[in-house]
User: Fold Glycosyl transferase family 1 from Pseudomonas laurylsulfativorans.
Amino acid sequence: MQKQQLIALFPEASFGAALNCIGIAQSLRELGAKPVFICHEHFQGLFAEYGFDEYPIPQASPLSAAEHQHYWERFIERSIPYFDQTPLAQIDSYVAPAWEAIIDTAIEAEKPLQQLLSRLKPDVIVLDNVVMFPAIANAGCPWVRVVSCAETELPDAAVPPYLSGCLASDTTACERYTAQYLKAVAPAHERFSQFLLSNGTAPSPPGQFLTDSPWLNLLLSPTPVRYERQQPLDPQRYVYLDGCVRREAPYIVPDFPRHNDAPLIYLSFGSLGAADTGMMKRLISTIETLPYRFLVNVGAYRDMYTTVPDNVYLDSWFAQPAVLKECDVFIHHGGNNSFCEALYFGLPSLIIPYCWDGHDNAARAEEVGVGRYLPRFADPVATLPAALEQLLADQAMKQRLKTFSERMQATRGTEIAARAILALPDL
Assistant:
């Protein structure tokens, strides 16, 4: 009897990466493998809800699991003043400090992760993160990289710089961003390179913190938003998934006291973006005046909203794929998970990014005609009503998105990922 393959999935401590990996794990389980999750302690319980075994990384610091849980919320709260800046200005104020914080968490996790992997002995490790862990490179089994940020994370001369929000055609802006980025992150890159070398792992090129897997790399960028690369990726090692959407139970839309038959719009800036309650309250004050229904994800901050308009329904958590099936437009921060799910369900995106690859996805959405980009540094709240009206009325975009959705859903990206993982030579 063939041995059941043990696949250890290790997403970063963010819901986007975690939920992408759950979709892949669902397909791995259907194909007879045993997917399990390595997770940070404060994410324990999420994967068990979907029926998967969890292996939390033991804490190496004196911080409790609860304190770790709020680490990034506090980091985001401190960074809120920088979210109204341009991507170029954010390099020094947000991006470089974020890399330093990410590196801190990776270094802290290294030895506990080594110990866990030596006990677990997986056949394959699936890493969905933005930094490398030497424990994974040295685990003695194949490892897979999931690129769940924008495709810009993989550099190419014909692709805009990662996190820049630039268009590839704007070479002056691309060059300026790259020069400033490399200079700002050089200290973090040097520190991380020394850490990798001290653990027997080769460092990444300047400005990068994670190398590609020599075995398999899975990209979540769907066909409609892919770039024409100057150096095409080897299809044997780089597999596009055309969406990587988990399965959820159906969502029952609540009744609204006002505009109950109007278009339904979902608004979510992710678990971290919800920390900017000032922005969320300004948005709610605006959408209260519009003739639509709104589902609004306010994350862990539900108690901060004492009054709710009759055309708005707030919650701290939504099963996003189930919700999007019922909606007409998706207002989001440009996180790759949200952007891909909007395309998967044929919804136009109205993107108000606050940081990271949200800028890249927002620029790309408008460039290829699948949404609108409302920069935070250009008063997006004031322009939101007209943008929503335009998206709801754009029949050509609606038909284009319908075609994309049908193709993506027929492709079944989670199954493509699972089959590619199980087809690795060492299995």
Observations:
- The chain has 14 helices and 13 strands.
